Amino acid sequence: MSRLLSAPGGPYAPPVPARELTVTAADGARIHVEAHGPERAPAVVLAHGWCCSTAFWAAQIRELAADHRVIAYDQRGHGRSPANPAYGTEPLADDLEAVLAATLAPGERAVLAGHSMGGMTVMAAATRPAVREHVAAVLLCSTGSSRLVASATVVPLGEGRVRTWLTRRILGSRAPLGPVTPLARRILKYGTMGPGSGPHMVEACARIVHACPRRVRHGWSQVLDLLDLDHGVRELRMPVEIVVGTADRLTPPSQARALAAALPDCVGLTELEGLGHMTPVEAPELVTGKIRALAAAHIPSARAERAVHAEESA
How far apart are CA 236 and CA 246, in angstroms? Predict the structure, then answer.
């Protein structure tokens, strides 16, 4: 597991959790969960994307844990969650439901943030009882609900069958990623990050993505290829905010706009000029601020705590 902790220092170094636990999903899959911050603080749950791990949320965890209970988990097969033969959106929903049930008290509400496949997990679980019980508001970062391969712009061609065919071959490749080299960093930056992303951001993302096992990467690429969660979007009835980078090649702004149009209660769509797919890493302060604002607006305990702080500062 040391490879997951080898990210550079600074805001992208994974914080040490206050508590770790293993949650068992409905099909027996074991899910690694980390908890950070004060035990009785307002809760935030973080779901990472394809080929990533809890380390992806390091900047958000570091800031939010000062006054929130932050729960982050590794999607099955990613990070410290063992690989499992079950691939699909229902297993993703099973895992999220198990994490919510295991970490939140009955009736406790949390803000749920999902990046990329983590956002798709939220959509897949939209009708699950644990989501309806525990999720007060949602932040969707750089994600989409369907036609992911057809809409991706990783291949610099116009939309059509040729681009879709080439994109499917690239994203579904079984080739090993190998060590993090200067060439590997350039390729990852082109495909997943904006042109202005700093070297420290690229390095952090490269180490996380390259740590994902090849079999897991390929298995989940097949799920994303066939993804159709448009029905799940319409079932997300809590307040939902969306963030996307205008230079996102994997889930471009057209995906975010379609989500905003379909959501029953979209409370905001922010398009970040020149940023790519890795928005929580590329714009850590903004994403953290969005999560914090959703908690303050939609979790009663967070509102009460904010009022107390305001009185003390007056």
Answer: 24
